[in-house]
Amino acid sequence: MFPNYFIPHGHCYLWKPGLVGLHVLSDGLIAVAYFLIPLTLIYIVQKRKDVPFDWVFMLFGSFIICCGITHIMEIWTLWHPNYWFSGFLKGITALISLSTAAVLVELIPKILAIPSPAQLAVANLALQNEIGDRKQAQEALSELMLELEKRVMERTIALELTNELLQQENRDRSLAENSLRHSEAKLLERTQQLEETLQQLKEAQTQLVQTEKMSSLGQMVAGVAHEINNPVNFIYGNLIPAEEYIKDILGLIKAYQVYYPNPAPEIADKIHTIELDFILKDLQKLFGSLKIGAERIKDIVKSLRTFSRLDEADMKKVNIHEGLDSTLMILQHRLKEQPNRPPIQVIKEYGELPLLECYAGQLNQVFMNIVSNAIDALEQMAQQGDSPKGYWENDFYEHFQSTYCHLLTIRIRTLLVDGQWVQIRIADNGTGIDYDAIAKIYDPFYTTKPIGSGTGLGLAISYQIIQAHEGYLRCTSEVGRGTEFIIEIPLRSHSCERNLAQKQAVMNKFS
Hints:
Layout: H1 17-47, H2 54-76, H3 83-112, H4 117-259, H5 265-274, H6 276-308, E1 316-318, H7 320-330, H8 332-335, E2 345-349, E3 356-358, H9 360-383, H10 393-404, E4 409-417, E5 421-428, H11 435-438, H12 458-468, E6 472-478, E7 482-490, H13 494-510
Parallel strand pairs: 2-4
Antiparallel strand pairs: 1-3, 4-5, 5-7, 6-7
């Protein structure tokens, strides 16, 4: 860019003082003029903000400055052979020059569209004529305004008397309206009080029904479990010695058969009649069946006790899966095959859950209500199944079973969410609930079941129970595709933590 192997341009002028001085003076004056012109353009643009295309002046000024710099370089290269740098500056000047020329070409139509002084004079004359016409119209309007003001004054005098009468009437009307508004406000306040009282009454009624229902159910279940448990324990306890006694008797019979292989004819006929060999083999199986039946009854009694939880009035840590299993055990008779439908399959997807701190009996009631509703939905779907002629009785049942058996399912899933919440999802693929009904299913006494089939309190009570556990009860459903209820309960409630903190404070106070 700055090579030293070129010779200065002054050698071309043979370093003649007159010729060199002439080029220096002319290039210097041209550069000064080029630098003064942009300053003038900038001054004009600053003073005249209304000048159109002011940015063109700036671009043109840049072009002129570049031209002035090239003339300065002409003087510089007389003594310094920096021709590459000079050529680079000329290239920049050429680019700016071409850009300016291109912009000016594009601006030619716009510049030509600017009105000429003659056109402006004609427009100014037309404007003055219009101003004159408007002045005449303004004068005529002023006269009309004076006439109008006169008429208004006359009307005003006449209206003042009328206004006095109207004001008196308005005052009377205002008093009547104020009295009416006051009465309406009192009526609205009384209505709100009645609505609040009605809501409190509904909540109290729902709570009373829940308490009475749980108390009756718990007492009945506990009584049944107690009455069944005593004879079952007696039977189960006597099975072992009875089995030993039978074994001893069988051993004695076998000993007789060894020592007396040929009994009397009457005894031989008796042995053949009662099929003694079959009895000897079947007695062991019979006692095994009796043990299994007794253990089954004990499991049912245990499930009934687990469901009632009468001895757990306070919050306790329980295994939530035991409550679900006890609910399913109690509803087992409804899940089995019925004359008008196949059995309902229950799919359990239990996750690994820690013990949940809750009111176990109340939570079991929630499970009972939701699973019962799921069974009702599946039975309703079974009753609404289309049945063509010729499929009644056995043929109809086989057709229905092959068509709907895969639909009659209840899926129960439990999982731990974020390590702090226990989530229980109970889903069925029954008839589903429409969108409008979902918004009202937790209202007391609202039910979609036929008259006499439901009280409309099950889900309302369940919602209150879950709220008492500081949890959430949500429902997602689609008509024809089933319903899912989602229960979320914290592992440890805040109210319980507050109670423990208060007990600890009292203990610290007295210790």
